[in-house]
Amino acid sequence: MYEVPKRRYAAIVFFVAIFVITFGIYTDSLPTIPNLSIIKNIPGQLGSYTGEYEEEVPQKNVSIFAFIMTFPDKHTTRAKAVSETWARKLDDYVFTTIKSDANLTHKNWEIGFEDANHKRTDRHWLWDRIRAGFRRMYKEKWGQYDWYMKADDDCYYVMENVRELLAQYNPEEPWYLGETVSAGSFYPSGGTGYILSKAALKKFVDELNSPNTHCQRNSDQMEDIHVGHCFTHLNLSLIPSVNEKQEHTLIPINLKNIMIVEEKRNNFANWYISASKIPVKQGPECCGPKLMAVHYTTPPFEVIPRAGSDPGISAINSWV
User: Fold this and answer.
1) 215 compared with 286, residue with greater pLDDT
2) Residues 69, 104: contact at Cβ < 8 Å?
3) How far apart, in whole angstroms, are the C-alpha atoms of residue 33 and residue 305?
C-alpha cells in the first residue's frame, strides 16, 4: 500500500469524521455523547483523530435558499437530522414532501400528485417533484437570495465550503454547481444536488414553463439526466467542483465506497467512479480539503456538539 503523509492522514480523517454521516436510524431526540472516542473502526491508513474541532468558520457573504426533498416516513428521522445539522447553515430552506406535517422541524411545501403525470410514490415521480420544487421556489423566493439549491434528505453538505466557492461567482450570471457524470452525455448527478445562481434559476424555470420547452415533459425517474439536458440547452455555465489536483468535492455516493477496494464496492459506486467526467481517485486521494457534499449516508450517526451548543458537526461510530 502506498504511503500518505501524516498531515494528509489527519486531514482526510477529519473530513471523513465530519462528512461520512448517516440519517437512517435517528431517534426523536438527538443523542449526545460524553467523549469523542466513537471513531474507532476507521482503517489504519487513515491515521488517528484527536476529536478536536476548530471554531466556527465565518460565513461568506452569499445568500442561499434550498428546498430539501423528503417523504413522510423520513420526517422524524432524516429531515430532523438535516434540520439540526447542515441546514442550519443555510439562509433559509423548506422541505418538499407529499404530505404537509406540523411535526416537521422546519416549514415544508406539500407537493402533491397534482404535480405528477401519474399517482405513484416511487422514483418515477422524481422529475415531477424537481420541476414543481424549482417552480415554486422561483415563484415565492426568486430575487430574495443569490443562490438556489435542491438537496436530498440523505445528503450532507459542508455549507462553509459551499459558500466559499460560490462567493467567487456572480449570481447575476447563469451559473450552476453540480458533480458531472456521463450516461451518453454529461449531466450533474442528482445525488449531491444542484445549486443555481439567481440568473440560472430564472432561465431554467422560464424554459420549464415555455409551451415550446426543450425539457422533458413527462414523468420520469432520471431527473438528473433531464436537468442536464435542460442546462445544456440553456447554455448554463458549470462551476468546477474538482480542484487542480483532480480531487473531487461533491461525492454522490457514500464516501466509504471510494475508500474500500474495488471488489467490495457496490455497482453504483463502480459506475460513478467510471462515469465521472473527471476521473475519481480511489483511497484518501479521492477528495479535496474543501469537500462540499457526500450522498447515501447510512445509519447510525450521532451528533457531537461544537464549542457552545452547536450540534452542526457529526461523526460516524462505525466504518464498515
Assistant:
1) 215
2) no
3) 9
Kindly state the cell numbers that stand for 113: 400528485
Cα–Cα distance, 70 to 106 (Å, whole number): 12
46-55 contact pairs (CB < 8 A, 24+): 46/9, 46/12, 46/13, 46/16, 46/259, 46/284, 47/6, 47/9, 47/10, 47/12, 47/13, 48/9, 48/10, 48/13, 49/10, 49/13, 49/14, 49/17, 53/304, 53/306, 53/307, 53/313, 55/307
- Domain ranges in the chain are 6-316
Q: Which of 91-100, 103-112, 188-197 has the lowest mean pLDDT?
A: 103-112
Q: Write out pLDDT tens, residues 163-172.
A: 999 999 999 9
Fold type of domain 6-316: Spore Coat Polysaccharide Biosynthesis Protein SpsA; Chain A (3.90.550)
Q: Do 191 and 294 form a contact (C-beta atoms < 8 A)?
A: no
d(Cα 178, Cα 187) in Å, to the nearest integer? Answer: 8
Residue 199 grid cell: 440568473
DSSP 3-state assignment of 242?
strand
Residue 1 is predicted with a pLDDT of 39
Look up the pTM and report it: 0.74
